[in-house]
Design brief:
The structure is a homodimer. Chain A is of the alpha/beta class. The first copy, chain A, is built from 18 helices and 14 strands. The longest helix of chain A has 20 residues, at 93-112.
Chain lengths: 436, 436
């Protein structure tokens, strides 16, 4: 089920990255899009249609799309707070404790993150940067085959720690009670049962009942992602999420059963999930292969794994650990697990990864639920430039310019000089009028 | 030239914001797009065509578009380093000194900005966030009627301070010598004379001669902005820039001549630039009105001002300073100038603004050139969620998860519990196998 690749073959197959925007759409998606929106309509066009209608008609369009796309008639979108409380109160005690433990560690972790406002008087007067919370944030929480209350915690809590005052959650109709319970646990009381592109449109433009937000975070399906791209710049975004992925670097000391379990956990997410092992140890590679084949038998989502793991996952034999690290930097995985004897040494080599898991004790599933950092991490190689969701995603800075009089007098002629060179004479005049 | 509005009228006119993506295209733009790309082609479609051709054909497509769109035949895109040096050496001494003074203050300012990596041992083992520089950054510097070497300094220097090793600059063909000189001053030696959407495509996808980058920053015209939106997620972006804007809040102590000069400096940028004064003082409003009419007579870009200022600018009478601050927060201006007696008090009320200029000594033009913070600031109301360009735009963080053994033992059952609730049994198994 898990093939072993040499590096050259791997580069031409499982290590190749094609950004979602440049991928072809699955034929089932194309067909259903054309069926609903008419012949020749592509997914981005259908999303543009949805967004435009929401901007123009608001709630009426939301109701229509919920009927057409989700087959649900909705009179109200808001989930009553009593329903949130009921969902929370119905949790088995052990699960309630587990979710609360998760929420407190995630909160404690993000409360450690510095919000680095600063000022200096070294440049004449006072200059600096002042961070303030974003006021309105929308969180999208997908439904789907495995609804994830953990994703709600991992998105909402960093926003709350940042000081965001207004948080709205959108999740598809007939929401899973666990998601409602998680909302209640975080004291979020504005939960709307709207899914897909229409949810993104509602939060970006606002409707009669759904508040307009300043920034939208959270992963979703293809249509959610396309909608996010189309509203980029109208609202802020956390990024565009693709399928989840884990890369494991292991040496001869790694426990093959544990490595196999970590790869399988990744592969069960969906049929596009990617689980890749890099190791210089041929013997470990073969033992992991065997362990995967054994363990998968007992797993409820073996059918999903049977699609994702053989096609998108694999074991890559590398000359040494250093070259494995170099491959990881090129690939820029969402999760990078260093299942090696000396993880801190190897981590020195790592530049591009969303989350770095040091040693086999820090296995990836702990990061999904309870370690502390948000599990919303950059996918698809975007860790080259993007970060896991964190407190800084929910603040923005203002530059502070408060020069003293003598500094202004010194700098004004310099500003005028450059303005003249740029042929902006009104700029120069604004400087010169101060000198007069 | 500068109308006085009451608040209600202003809300329906100059304070209304329409995101660029939702605006209609000027008819001249639509006509030239159809002329080049065929009937019915909209600007976004033309941009998609350009991007796809560059992704498929690389340099050949770049040459073709430079010929078609810029009427320039290019054999090589790279501006030779000798040409950069020559441009720098040809600067008049006073201008060279001014640009160097600007560069050193911008560098000194950004060197003060903390890069807030951190670790904690309070949650069992070591958890934290580690910031690393982005490796490859592309900077777009527009040409146009007033080429801005200052924009190059204001984009490149924060990236250099962040530790970015590879910086490429794209600027339209036959680049202005001042832009080349600024590149040389910053020790950037990879400058390409490629403009428009094709420059964004070249940097996003890479070509035979132009390196692929991880993140693109810098403002440009409509086509640059559309191209940035289309490659969002393939590369990181600083945001989508719209027309520049300044909001001034002034009280009775403000100097009407200075306020007028600041508004005119803003209005000369382009015909879409916005310069708005908020004041509770009717007498100041009228004196600023007069001063603007007088000062504009001497300005070389009076024709641009004559279009931008009467239509998009204006003076708004507010009940008091506090309500002026509230309007500023709603509007979220790129630049906010507090030309009041007590700017530090008023600044307490401000949440949404790119740059805040405290008092009349800290006038906006100083921020354009020499104060220290980057003059690349969020426009169009995006200051609700976005920041001026700063060092954090050029780094990304990795979450560090290095739990100790006893913490792992404590947390594993909790992770398994939540995984079971989410019906992710391979996740649960990866936790349970550690307990065995």
């Amino acid at each position: 089920m898990l093939k072993i690749y040499d590096l050259d073959t791997a580069r031409q197959t499982i290590l190749r990255r094609i950004p979602p925007q440049l991928s072809t759409y699955p034929s089932a998606v194309l067909e259903s899009t054309e069926r609903i929106f008419g012949p020749g309509t592509t997914p981005p066009h259908s999303v543009a249609t949805i967004l435009a209608s929401i901007r123009e008609e608001g709630d009426a369009a939301l109701k229509r799309w919920s009927q057409t796309l989700d087959k649900v008639h909705l009179d109200v979108f808001n989930v009553p707070t009593e329903e949130l409380a009921a969902a929370y109160n119905s949790l088995p005690d052990s699960l309630s404790q587990a979710l609360n433990a998760s929420a407190s560690r995630v909160r404690a972790f993000h409360e450690c993150q510095p919000i680095p406002s600063w000022e200096t008087q070294a440049l004449g007067g006072i200059l600096g940067q002042r961070f303030t919370p974003i006021e309105h944030v929308g969180v999208y929480v997908p439904g789907g085959t495995a609804p994830l209350p953990s994703s709600l915690l991992m998105s909402v809590i960093p926003a709350q720690v940042a000081g965001v005052r207004q948080i709205a959650v959108c999740t598809p109709p007939n929401p899973n009670p666990l998601i409602l319970a998680a909302a209640r646990l975080c004291n979020v009381d504005r939960v709307y049962q709207i899914g897909g592109a229409q949810a993104i449109g509602a939060m970006a433009f606002g409707t009669q009942t759904i508040p307009q937000v300043d920034k939208i975070v959270g992963a979703g399906n293809l249509f959610v992602t396309l909608a996010k791209q189309q509203v980029y710049g109208i609202v802020g975004l956390d990024g565009l999420a693709g399928p989840t992925e884990t890369m494991v670097i292991a040496d001869e000391d790694a426990n093959p059963q544990w490595v196999a379990a970590d790869l399988l956990a990744q592969a069960e997410h969906d049929i596009l999930a990617k689980a890749i092992l890099l190791t210089p140890d041929d013997s470990l590679a073969r033992r992991v292969q065997v362990a995967v084949a054994q363990q998968v038998e007992n797993l409820s989502r073996a059918d999903i794994i049977a699609q994702s793991l053989p096609q998108l996952g694999g074991i890559i034999l590398t000359p040494d650990l250093k070259s494995a690290a170099a491959i990881a930097n090129e690939y820029a995985p969402e999760h990078l697990c260093l299942s090696v004897a000396q993880p801190w040494n190897l981590a020195q080599e790592i530049k591009n990864a969303g989350g770095i898991f040091y040693g086999e004790n820090s296995f990836e599933v702990l990061g999904d639920y309870i370690a502390g950092p948000s599990h919303v991490m950059p996918t698809g190689g975007t860790a080259r430039f993007a970060s896991p969701l964190n407190v800084l995603d929910f603040v923005k800075l203002s530059s502070i310019i408060a020069l003293d009089k003598s500094t202004t007098e010194n700098l004004s002629p310099i500003a005028a000089q450059i303005a003249q060179a740029e042929m902006l004479t009104a700029h120069a005049a604004a400087a010169e009028i101060r000198e007069a």
